[in-house]
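Appendix B. One record, verbatim.
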Amino acid sequence: MKLNFRATSVVVLLAGLAFSCGGGEKSAESGAEASTTTETATAEVSLEDKYKDDPVYIKGLEKVKGSDCTGCHQVDRKLIGPAYADVAAKYENTDANVAMLAQKVIAGGVGVWGEIPMAAHPNLTEEDASDMVRYILLLKK
């Protein structure tokens, strides 16, 4: 009788180990797949990739890069002036806001974003300033 009890105990123990190990591997595998799927789904597309084919983005970016704007502004973070993404978050992309902001770029100003004045850009045409503003207003996060 002892032999049967011992043999049965060993069989039950081995079956339990096999079951628990097999289930754990599948669970870990599923967890890894779920983690990868979640990371892929939540990965943000850069603004550059999002708008790289948009003519408004392309034209405005070209004009911004050809100006002195990048000495005071960046897309994602404040330097001397606000980040372009912060400007885009503050102002809705409407024709009225584009015209108003283009005039601010040309005339310069102070007080909206702090006490450091934005230099005037009197040599910019209204069209160029508007193209730059349209580009900036695309950059919502």
